[in-house]
Amino acid sequence: MLSTESLAQIDREIAKYPADQKQSAVMSALRIAQVEKGWLAPESIEFVATYLGMPTIAVYEVASFYNMYDLRPVGAHKLTVCTNISCQLQGVDAVVAKIQAKLGIGFGETTPDGRFTLKEGECFGSCGDGPLCLHNNHTLHTRLTADNVDAFLEGLK
Amino acid sequence: MSLNVPNHKVCTWTQDYDNPASLATYTANGGYEALKKILAEKTPAEQIIEQLKISALRGRGGAGFPTGLKWSFMPRNYEGDKYIVCNTDEGEPGTFKDRDILRFNPHQLIEGMIIAGYTLGARAGYNYIHGEIFEQYQSWERALDEARAAGLLGNNILGSGWNFDLHAHHGYGAYVCGEETALLESIEGKKGQPRFKPPFPASYGLYGKPTTINNTETLASVPWIMRHGGQAFLDLGKPNNGGSKIFSVSGHVERPGNYEVRMGTPFSELLEMAGGVRGGRHLKAVIPGGSSVPVLPGATMMELTMDYDSIAKAGSYLGAGSVIVMDDTVCMVKALERLAYFYFEESCGQCTPCREGTGWMYRVIHRIEHGQGRPEDLDLLMSVGTNISGRTICALGDAAVGPVHSFLKHFRNEFEYHIEHKRCMVGA
Ligand SMILES: Cc1cc2nc3c(=O)[nH]c(=O)nc-3n(C[C@H](O)[C@H](O)[C@H](O)COP(=O)(O)O)c2cc1C
Ligand code: SF4
Ligand code: FES
Q: What is the model's pTM?
């Protein structure tokens, strides 16, 4: 079950589509559920399916197709770093090395205290501002360098 | 410098103002005037399409398809619903122009989409926004609210009796959804897997209804064209390559960023605007249109102008205008390894040649990069690529091959060196 506020948000999304096309809101509904719960547990997927009148398997297919949905728990701070070509040329390797050393984890891992998860991302469509880190899927931190990345991580506390 | 007084800036002019994204800035400089005129005069759709054809506006999403021609494919007398869809799923490595249109000039896109909706007889429009720029999903929705409050969207727009609305839909991390039919599947609440074509979206699109899909920059150029005329837009650029274009310049330049210049501007000038190659180093290579187009040697690029025809003649594509600059410190094997990984990771898996071939190419390049390459690997890469090309449902398969074949064509010696010496030639 989701909070009334989350449900109101989902209802606003449903209203964007024709009345017989409620399932178009599934991507938003999963995003809203993930923001509230931290990740998409099977109960959340089932809830979204019931709410939108979709088969659970269809919702699960969507949740597993798109990279930003988390089907397993993640840390309080999920950090996704774009390592694609433009960011690579603009120095992301040094930034990643610093983050990994500081947090003591590699890509795909979570710190033992459950505070940080580090993920490798594909192009964010923001390369001119790279290297970049996407914080909890929705906030983009731009122009990271080996020098300013410490301050960035401190700021997340 | 606005929509009123034309200079070469079609989509980025608001950035000269304090509140570039606001409705007030946009309307104070001629924004929504084109729409008002069209609604007041009930301009026939054919006239609007005619101006687009004269303008030589070509799709800014990568393929460069003439926009006027695309709009003319929509069935005119269809009785049911029709849709207009904007593609802001900008995820092609090296491309970051549409994000800036949403950040700094959201109303010009809104006006362009409303004019498209009017011309094509659509009941509604959706803008599909790349998941990773969620802040722009939110900011564009705020711009829609502003437009709605001003009577520019919703029922009886500006007293015309015409109803039309726009909505934002976000992606959530899948490059393939930039492909137009995958994008439609995604709006329909499914996995983003491309559809077989034909049927094309103009006859069977969103919810099976006639749909026109255009890139953000394409649609944002429409109000300018309607205001100043197709000829004025054409005159900004060159024949068959109308207008100005935003070039996203990234990689080894002093000032990565977006630069809107006239079509046909020499590459050397664009490079200079971006501050030149960082640290005054030697220009080694350029990918002129986003990661999917063939790489060109730096010396070749220095002779070219930035327009569809010039870049195509040199064996690459202008694509989305995403210029990735590489200096002489780049190991081409490492760069290609990263690109190959991207296509492997993002293949939707529907077609065997793409699903298997992208993984195979990545593994071979990976082993070359890591000193385990074999002499026969380069021929193997060429043949795996050839077996993907033209054998897949969507263009992602071809997109994965372009970099591999062109890197081997222009920088084969680096790959051979890697295989023979088990290390990199750059800096050796
Ligand atoms: C794998 C793939 C990714 C694509 N990504 C985008 C994209 O991010 N933005 C875009 O506008 N077009 C993208 N396209 C092209 C679209 O399919 C389509 O041609 C375009 O949106 C049409 O708009 P236009 O005619 O205004 O360029 C992509 C195509 C492929 C095959
Ligand atoms: S070419 Fe690749 S991405 Fe495109 S439909 Fe086939 S498997 Fe999917
Ligand atoms: S390559 Fe990193 S944001 Fe595009």
A: 0.97
pLDDT at residue B278, as a whole number: 97
Nearest by CB: A84 against B90, B93, B190: B93
What would the mean pLDDT of A29-48 be, rounded to a whole number?
Answer: 98
Three-class DSSP labels, chain B: CCCCCCCCCCCCHHHHCCCCCCHHHHHHCCCCHHHHHHHHHCCCHHHHHHHHHHHCCECCCCCCCEHHHHHHCCCCCCCCCCEEEEEECCCCCCCCHHHHHHHHCHHHHHHHHHHHHHHHCCCEEEEEECHHHHHHHHHHHHHHHHHHHCCCCECCHHHCCCCEEEEEEECCCCHHHHCHHHHHHHHCCCCCCCCCCCCCCCCCCHHHCCEEEEEHHHHHHHHHHHHHCHHHHHHHCECCECCEEEEEEEECECCCEEEEEECCEEHHHHHHHCCCEHHHCCEEEEEECECCCCCEEHHHHCCCEECHHHHHHCCCCCCCCEEEEEECCCCHHHHHHHHHHHHHHHCCCCCHHHHHHHHHHHHHHHHHHCCCCCCCHHHHHHHHHHHHCCCCCCCHHHHHHHHHHHHHHHHHHHHHHHHHHCCCCCCC
Q: Would you list which residues of chain A are within 8 Å, Cβ to Cβ, of chain B?
A: 16-18, 21, 23-28, 30-31, 52, 54, 58, 61-62, 65-69, 83-86, 88-90, 121-130, 134, 137-140
pLDDT over threshold 80, residue A54:
yes
pLDDT, average across residues B329-347:
97
pLDDT tens digits for range B195-241 = 999 999 999 999 999 999 999 999 999 999 999 999 999 999 999 99
Q: Tell me whether B91 touches chain A (CB under 8 Å).
A: yes
